[in-house]
Amino acid sequence: MTATDDETSKGLVYIVDEDRRQIRPYVDTLRSWQYDVEVLPRADIAYDRLVEERKGCLVVIDIMLARGEPTKVALQNEKPVSVGLALFEELVRESAPLFPAHAAFFTHVEQPGIVRRAERIAAQYNIPLWRKRDYRSGYRFASAVDDQVKRLARRQER
User: Fold this and answer.
1) What are 85-90's contacts with CB under 8 Å, separation 24+?
2) Are 142 and 30 in contact (CB under 8 A)?
3) Computed over its alpha carbons, how large is the radius of gyration of the chain?
4) Percent of the chain whose predicted confidence (pLDDT) is above 90
5) Which of 59, 78, 80, 105 could cross-link to 14 by cystine, CB 3.0-4.6 Å?
6) In this structure, are residues 151 and 157 in contact, taking their beta carbons and an 8 Å threshold?
7) 16 pLDDT above the threshold of 90
8) Measured between alpha carbons, how far is 138 from 25 in angstroms, rounded to an integer?
9) Confidence class of residue 1 from pLDDT cuts 50, 70 and 90?
10) Rounded to whole angstroms, how far apart are CA atoms 11 and 42?
11) Planar angle of CA 127, 17, 124, nearest 5 degrees
């Protein structure tokens, strides 16, 4: 049963990450916090789902992401270690309704050039860049997501 079935959902969180086993504790914890969660395991699937999506309250994107069969040149040419950044930039260019404000990066990437690029993009669009090493428990991750969702809700109220 999803939180929506209960009429108690705090909202829909998309997690764009192919490593289902690794993210399962995060997904389970978010669900226990009354969030609906949809996992999008590849850039092509995420792009197709998110380009016109309006319902989600947050999209968490892994920077090192499986590409799939992208139709967008930007995704085809991107190195695997930074496909999530290219996906984000493409969704911003396409004026996808949830982007850029309702996005957050979540990554294990340690390569200095990729980290600098991610930090620059996150700062430019005022979105979080969460390092997976800092979120070893589902609780810490769910707490960060919940805080960001509340921040976004306060912004919309203004």
Assistant:
1) 85/114, 85/117, 85/118, 85/121, 86/43, 87/16, 87/43, 87/46, 87/47, 87/61, 88/61, 88/121, 89/121, 90/47
2) yes
3) 15
4) 77
5) 59
6) no
7) yes
8) 5
9) very low
10) 22
11) 20
Put simply, whether the predicted model's pTM sits higher than 0.85 gets the answer yes
Over the stretch 18-29, which tens digit does the pLDDT of each residue have? 999 999 999 999
Give me 65's structure tokens.
């992401």
Q: What pLDDT is attached to residue 127?
A: 98
- Residue 155, judged by CB atoms within 10 A of its CB (0-12, 13-18, 19+), counts as exposed
Say what the pLDDT of residue 85 is.
94
Q: Which stretches of the chain are assigned E, i.e. beta strand? A: 11-16, 35-40, 58-62, 103-107, 129-131
Contact 119, 73 (CB under 8 A): no
The owner of tokens 């999209």 is: 59
* Gap between the Cα atoms of 120 and 89, Å rounded: 12
* Whether the Cβ atoms of residue 127 and residue 59 lie closer than 8 Å to each other: no
Residue 58: strand, helix, or coil? strand
Counting Cβ atoms within 10 Å, is residue 10 exposed (0-12), middle (13-18) or buried (19+)?
middle
